[in-house]
Structure formats: C-alpha cells, structure tokens
Amino acid sequence: AQKVTQAQTEISVVEKEDVTLDCVYETRDTTYYLFWYKQPPSGELVFLIRRNSFDEQNEISGRYSWNFQKSTSSFNFTITASQVVDSAVYFCALTRGAAGNKLTFGGGTRVLVKP
Amino acid sequence: NAGVTQTPKFQVLKTGQSMTLQCAQDMNHEYMSWYRQDPGMGLRLIHYSVGAGITDQGEVPNGYNVSRSTTEDFPLRLLSAAPSQTSVYFCASRDGASTYEQYFGPGTRLTVT
Lengths: 115, 113
Prior knowledge:
The complex is a heterodimer.
Chain A: E1 3-5, E2 10-14, E3 19-21, E4 24-26, E5 32-39, E6 46-52, E7 59-61, E8 64-69, E9 74-79, E10 88-96, E11 104-105, E12 109-114
Parallel strand pairs in A: 2-12
Antiparallel strand pairs in A: 1-4, 3-9, 5-6, 5-10, 7-8, 8-9, 10-11, 10-12
Chain B: E1 4-7, E2 10-13, E3 19-25, E4 31-37, E5 43-51, E6 54-57, E7 64-66, E8 76-78, E9 87-94, E10 103-104, E11 108-112
Parallel strand pairs in B: 2-11
Antiparallel strand pairs in B: 1-3, 3-8, 4-5, 4-9, 5-6, 7-8, 9-10, 9-11
C-alpha cells in the first residue's frame, strides 16, 4: 500500500521568510511519480510539480524549490522569500508508474504568510 | 478549452436523497477520477475510469456509483446520501498518452443533513 505523510499540519511565517514543507512517502514500487499541488483559499487545486522516481535532481522554479531524496523517501518543498499570495494548503501526492490516475495524497500543510 | 467542469458548485441534501454530481472535460482525456476531500485527510480516490465503458473502484467507493458512457463525461451518483458523505468532491482528468499530471475541476461542496 502507498502512503504519504505531511507531518506539518499548519505553518505560520512572516512575509519574506523561507518555509519548507516536508513530505515523506511509502511505496513498494520502483517506478512512481511524486507531485505537489497548491490549494489557495478559492479552493481549486493547482499543479506545481511532478517528479519521477528515476530523477533525483533538485528543481527550482522561481521562488519554489524541491528536494527529492530517495534514500529517505522524502520530497520536500521550499518557498523562498514567502509572500502573502503563498498562503494556501499544499498537498504532496504519489502515484504508481503504471497506474498514474490513482493519486495518494498526504493530509496537506496549511501555510499562512502574514504581512 | 474549458478544462474540467463540475456542476453543481454547492448542494445540500437530506439523508436518504439521491443525486448526481456532473463532471465533464473537453481535453479528450482518457482517464477520469473522482476524489473527496475531508478536513485533515487530503483527497481520497472514490472511483476512476481509464476510458469510455471502463470504471473501477478507488479507496472509498461505498455509497457511490459511476459510469462512463462517453469520453467527456464522468458523473458520480450518490445512491442514498448520508451525513458521512458531507465533503468537497473533485473530478480530475488525465491524458494517458503523455503526462501523469491530473487536471482538477473546481469542486462541488456537498452537505448532507
């Protein structure tokens, strides 16, 4: 069975601080994909990144960066110089390589960025 | 493209009533799924479909039925609503040929009293 754990339920920071969201996953598959989604207060789910199990390169996109470490089964997400617009719930998710339509989600981390 | 659309946006039901949540996508995606979101639990898969005429159960299928008669539509039926089905429901679709990214609809907030 697959499992995704986001141990931090809520993080509160002041604008311009960095914030790191932890994601730990469990799977027996050798091929799998990891995702991060953002859910702003308006409620829609916004895709942020996809990473496959064979690509352990870290990725940076603007103020967002992701650290994938297979050895610790973690896929952490950092927001640098946070802004009020970053306030949202962030979900980490996992899917099997051959059944990519079945996403297993973590419980989400609510990020509150105060001005 | 409208992407993934869901109707209604909000719905209140009484226990025992039935209803259908509508989901449509105009991206010609093969794969479609229904998830429910409950506080603190993330999203959980209810049912999914890998193409017209093919559906299968996800993690929490009890109390829900689906069918997929066309590529575009994937309705979710609540047979006899229960308070435990109060949740936000998301429909998603994915292009099976290329990426594993799922595109989500805006959600339907359902309250069962």
